[in-house]
Design goal:
By secondary structure, the protein is an alpha/beta fold. The chain folds into two domains: 132 residues, Rossmann fold; 95 residues, Glutamyl-tRNA Synthetase, Domain 3 (Glutamyl-tRNA Synthetase, domain 3, Alpha-Beta Complex). 35% of the residues lie in helices and 14% in strands. It has nine helices and ten strands. The strands form three sheets. Strands 3-2-1-9-10 form a five-stranded parallel β-sheet. Strand 6 and strand 7 form a beta hairpin. Helix 6 crosses helix 7. The longest helix has 17 residues. The relative contact order is 0.18. Bound molecules: glutamic acid (GLU). The site of glutamic acid has 7 residues, from loops.
Length: 297
């Protein structure tokens, strides 16, 4: 199926250079856009400034260029888009869909424990809704979305039907953090809508954010996008590769080899020769799987 107005994107956080896992998401999003005759954009997600590394965005753009993955428009930078996020938060506040929260992390943990659901390490820290009906004298620290009760269902092109009870499993989540930084969930939803993104293709580690992002799209009356979460690359220890656990940067002095590794994760065949030809062939393979109605990844 070809979609005339397809707009896809790759949205790296500049917390380090691209690693084997992030190249899979970059290649998959590029192939999906090309196979739909669509546009492919790159967005630098540099709002979580304490985690950003100087020069990493330029390194990432250079690595993409080495792999001939070139965006159709100049990249946008989230750090320059605060006014868009503020505007969205103002609308949510005006609609009663966002509210200020005065809880510290300790308060959130204590409220959860009081409900008989003590916070487990590495698990989502569920917000019990303490400030939903007012701050009760506490100063406002963060802003949260009032999440409607009920199970959210959504369709992933590879994983199939997914579901999450966001209100119970996550709670009212943060839109603007206590340190004044914009939360990833808000920025990504606003940017996807503002850039006219129709299809999100990204790593499976981000899949469990999707229900939250759809809840936010609905609260703002924004169109829902199509989602495809790509397989993760696991390290020797069986953990997913991430910049946090020190995944090695891809070596783009041999871009075809880096691309072949990424293509293999996506079930595409090994190519030799020029990069442009390899990308053409993978695009053909991707389109064939897609047109046959099977998951392209
Ligand atoms: N910036 C996020 C990351 O690098 C990806 C966001 C997204 O694709 O929605 O993990």
């Amino acid at each position: 199926m070809r979609v005339g107005n397809y707009v896809g994107r790759f949205a790296p956080s500049p917390t380090g250079p691209l690693h084997a896992g992030s190249l899979v998401a970059a290649l998959a999003s590029w192939l999906d856009a090309r196979a739909h005759d669509g546009q492919w954009l790159v967005r630098i997600e540099d709002i979580d400034t304490p985690r950003c590394v100087d020069g990493a965005a330029q390194t990432i753009l250079g690595q993409l260029a080495d792999c001939a993955l070139v965006p159709d428009q100049p990249p946008v930078w989230q750090s320059q888009r605060s006014s868009l996020y503020q505007h969205a938060l103002d609308r949510l506040i005006a609609d009663g869909a966002a509210y200020p929260c005065g809880c510290s992390r300790k308060d959130v943990e204590a409220a959860l424990a009081a409900q008989g659901r003590p916070h487990q390490r590495n698990a989502e820290l569920v917000y019990a809704g303490t400030c939903r009906n007012g701050l009760r004298g506490k100063p406002a620290r963060a802003w949260r979305l009032r999440v409607p009760a009920g199970i959210m269902h959504w369709q992933d092109r590879r994983l199939g039907i997914q579901q999450q009870d966001v209100a119970h499993e996550v709670g009212d989540f943060v839109l603007k953090r206590a340190d004044g930084l914009w939360a990833y969930q808000l920025a990504v939803v606003i940017d996807d809508a503002d850039q006219g993104i129709t299809h999100v293709v990204r790593g499976q580690d981000l899949a469990d954010n999707t229900a939250r992002q759809i809840a936010l799209q609905r609260a703002l009356g924004l169109p829902q996008v199509s989602y495809l979460h790509t397989p993760l690359v696991l390290g020797a220890n069986g953990e997913k590769l991430s910049k946090q656990n020190g995944a090695a940067a891809i070596d783009t002095s041999d871009p075809l080899s880096a691309l072949n590794d990424a293509a293999q994760v996506l079930g595409l065949s090994k190519q030799s020769g020029a990069i442009a030809q390899a990308l053409d062939e993978w695009q053909r393979q991707w389109g064939t799987k897609m047109d046959a109605g099977s998951s392209p990844a």
